[in-house]
Amino acid sequence: MPWRRDTRPYYILVSELMLQQTQVARVIPKFEEFIGVFPDVQSLADASLADVLKRWQGLGYNRRAKFLHESAKMIVRDYGEDFPIEDKDLLGLPGVGRNTAGAIAAYAFNRPALFVETNVRTVYIHHFFNDAFSVDDRQIIDVLGRTLDKERPREFYWALMDYGAHLKAGGIRNIDQSRHYKKQSPLMGSVRQVRGQIIRTLSDGDRPETALRAAVEADDRYEAAMTGLIKDGLVTIRRGQVYLTK
User: Which of 16, 32, 81, 209 is catalytic?
Assistant: First the structure.
């Protein structure tokens, strides 16, 4: 994993946002492509949102790309390219919640932060809450705090990630025992599917709205998809022409 070979904070931020709701195997080639175009936080901040969205294609959940772009601009503007270290500053970055901030602290700065994600849940439910249901993340955090290797937190979490993946590959499917687990809705037939089709189509260039409707599955999901994309600031319509927000 390239973000393990090079743990600079920018790489960790990019990888963590990409890994939200996306499997590692899909992220690795997209990460390498993305970093090839935007090698540092300044180059990402200088890019247009439209260019970032184009490079994000294939990962889905395009708001993550906007959050990443906004975070880069904030880091350059407010921190002079010096990546924020303190928890309160990490939590101020768009798209960065408590668990993502903890991951950045552990992986980029080797700090003994406490955070929970899918593989952490898999490991700790398997060993400490195997017969329990509706396991709260606070219960896992309590045990995690007593078992974390505070001298080598980065390697400890790497091991947790690999062990969690190993357990799942071996048939351990306990994530539904977590009260925080929400099964991802199917892509096919969803508004999310049409949102992705609109973004992909506009990645090839601006379109008149009539042409855009003809190019995507413009069924009863289209209006909801377009309204959401405009609200999220990903798409702009002006004089009947639709384009990715510049």
Answer: 16
